[in-house]
Predict the structure of Glutamine-dependent NAD(+) synthetase.
Amino acid sequence: MKIALAQINYHIGNFELNTKKIIDHIYLSKGKGADLVVFAELAVCGYPPRDFLEFEDFIALCERSALEIAAHCKDIACIIGLPVKNEVLAGKDLFNAAYFIADGAIKQVVKKTLLPTYDVFDEYRYFEPNAQFNCVEFKGQKIALTICEDLWNINDNPMYISCPMDELILQQPDLMINIAASPFDYHHDEDRIKVLSDNAKKYKLPLFYVNQVGAQTELIFDGGSLVFDQEGELKAEMKYFEEDLQVFEVGEVENVKNKYPAPARDSDIKQIHDALVLGIKDYFQKSGFSKAVLGLSGGIDSAVVCALACEALGAENVMAVLMPSKYSSDHSVKDALDLVNNIGCKHEIIEIKAATEAFDQMLAKPFEGLAFNVTEENIQARCRGIVVMAMSNKFGYILLNTSNKSECAVGYGTLYGDMCGAMSVLGDVYKTQVFELARFINAEREIIPVNTIVKPPSAELRPNQKDSDSLPDYGILDRILFQHIEKKQGAKAIIAQGFDETLVKRILKMVNVAEFKRYQTPPILRVSSKAFGMGRRMPIVGRYMD
Amino acid sequence: MKIALAQINYHIGNFELNTKKIIDHIYLSKGKGADLVVFAELAVCGYPPRDFLEFEDFIALCERSALEIAAHCKDIACIIGLPVKNEVLAGKDLFNAAYFIADGAIKQVVKKTLLPTYDVFDEYRYFEPNAQFNCVEFKGQKIALTICEDLWNINDNPMYISCPMDELILQQPDLMINIAASPFDYHHDEDRIKVLSDNAKKYKLPLFYVNQVGAQTELIFDGGSLVFDQEGELKAEMKYFEEDLQVFEVGEVENVKNKYPAPARDSDIKQIHDALVLGIKDYFQKSGFSKAVLGLSGGIDSAVVCALACEALGAENVMAVLMPSKYSSDHSVKDALDLVNNIGCKHEIIEIKAATEAFDQMLAKPFEGLAFNVTEENIQARCRGIVVMAMSNKFGYILLNTSNKSECAVGYGTLYGDMCGAMSVLGDVYKTQVFELARFINAEREIIPVNTIVKPPSAELRPNQKDSDSLPDYGILDRILFQHIEKKQGAKAIIAQGFDETLVKRILKMVNVAEFKRYQTPPILRVSSKAFGMGRRMPIVGRYMD
């Protein structure tokens, strides 16, 4: 039996597009001699459909698409993921399910048992867990078909009390298929290979795994569909960050040349780079936009965003706006212009002096006798926000936010100022990683000016300001933030690792106090195991850790 | 046996405050002769603690508080809600639990079975469902103790396949106690009475129900703790929107004079009014702030917010900023000043002309030859945003947002302009309800100027602009929005109710397209069964319904 794995970039709720892509891949697979083509979890509607699932006509459109797809399954079988109604009165109204389709008809429905409800996942919000286990029989083979999380309850600290493969194995299947929607983070490819390999080993079965690819607002699916033999050895690894279609002969998986020792895996920073480029590209394409605008300060964050945007959208579609003030240093404009020249994007220089002076004048009476402080710093940042949003409104550019994760974490940014934007490109990338990204982008030639990389970071909102005036060294800050955010460690545990007590407490307090700002941050492209946004849900008026 | 129900306003993560309040109420209850005092669900840490639950030291602080509380339980027993560790390896790491404490020690742990994971609730994100059922025995009585949702699986379309009381009833309990954290919406008091009464009737047991009170950012808990006899008749209803403590003699519940036919319930609009006042008050108090600022336009939304803020914080703590432009009508400033005079709050008048002219000049080159459009309208709104944020930054005022739910729904508002604010007061109140609120506020004397109520709504961002230029009549708009948002109806179902097809499709498209704006909206005080924010989670790049 030949199995095709179809790794496709879906668009949530775009039934026309998704159905067409699925049908096209059915014919492509048939052309390659496949007996069965496997599509990802919730392929029909895209993942995650979120509260669209609560609308009955959305579910009806899923079912209609499935019937249309089924009509094309002649002389080839297919597996597609979609939400289906729970016909039993008690329990949630839906299942996260897969249809096994053959001879133009839906032959079997397989339902997901383990419903991830943590971090960015909300599946128990919508779905009833499965409690019935049946293999799919096809061409004399018994297939243990599971859906994503169903295979993840395998190692230490299992999150669920049941394990679907422990049920299915009782029926003596010949192979495993797992359909997934597994979002990228820069360690997740390794975790995934480990967990899936452990399943193949535990159940002594070959395993065919297909993932989605493409970005859905903040979540980036990296593809990398996989095949393992019954020893748990990785036999095939499909493309990352691209659509792909490959066909495998089931009985011959063990004869495929072993992938391990594999070629060196892509570095974390290359993975982050590729993920962000795809994240920008898909946000624009799926929203129907093509052009981006951003404020270019001469600093490293906006330089990196500009380079990534040019790569994703083409330099001709990127407008960089330079907005110097009286506190901007001489090198700011020069460094920004050097980047523009290196990269070939459009630019405008718009000084913000007239606006800041106007506000000084308007606020002269209420502010009489009061000293310059963060208020006036914020006014500058907000005047810049107005300028880039005006460019966005007038020309249909989409504003890219340029804040990094370190800033987001400690609240070093101005709401409605530099925190504006339709999408945050670097909001899940710590400052130290932004430097790595800059060096990665410059690997072949200088795109980001060296001076942008080597000069001390500064917001330039008051004379001779440096980030280091109010923040610790980013090398230390980022390590503490990583422990707190990704590793969920409290002050005590972080201090026990050898960090300075006063510093740790100060930073954790800053993180907690900045919650109200992050609530209004644009959606952030997620590249780590714990990004700000939908995957991290904190009270705003809470008192813990201040 | 005498049972005290302690209805308390907790503060999430403020262990010192919560513990002190609980201990105080233990002594108060003892003073009133109670044998047992009952506190709400997750009383120890406040509800909802959200991802604070993922930090081990947070859980340790809950346990430490419980031990401190236990030490005060001499000659009185108590029930407190708190998260407790799941000592079994498999499954989620925590239970949503209750401690039964007597003689200074934790005697029994009762765990929640049904974990609400819908709308604003995320309990399965954190908690393992209970699967063991034991009554609490105390003073010769068997108590069937359940936690909030545990009693809600009773009527049509049950959301769960199990029912905890069906297990507990097998042990022949003498009474039921339910501890809850049940947030307000303007119909929820009636639903709650119905569901709890149905439980008392079904199991033929008296039922003692205690709820939290107070606001936690967007969620407002209304209190209204309840006692039913074994016929399901409501025998006591505690205060709404206030702390309360009442003691009941278990055997005498049936002798209490029947509450039904009850005095007329508070109107929806009075409930909404009281909820919003409490929401504002608690946001400020729990964040450690006392003063609010808002932009006062002369229109009805900002007038109502100003009146509510003055009621919540005292007029002396409210700063209204009038920011006329050349498009402001003569009556705008007059109507706003009339309100200020009626209500006695502080005010400033700051014209925005200097700023808008500065931006016109700064953008003259890139915008050369291009007509005035929404760009320039947004610049005005954003200049006002800068002014009120500057007042906030300079004086420590917290900015209240004044957008209503109708505007939020269709995207009729400017991001980083009138959509600024730390908290949205009316974001869950439709425009037609805002008018009702204004009339309610004016019931005893004219606070909101009549002209503000009777004039046609306008954003006044271009000459002679009216809301009705771009939006349908609010009476129709709000009814369509209600069907779509609260009732989750798609276009087809709404059209089938008799609404115009073109209009319905246009409005639903507007709602869908505005998702990116709502993502960056401030937290919205929730008063309906479906508010924008944490309870409504939509994809941004999704295509459904456009």
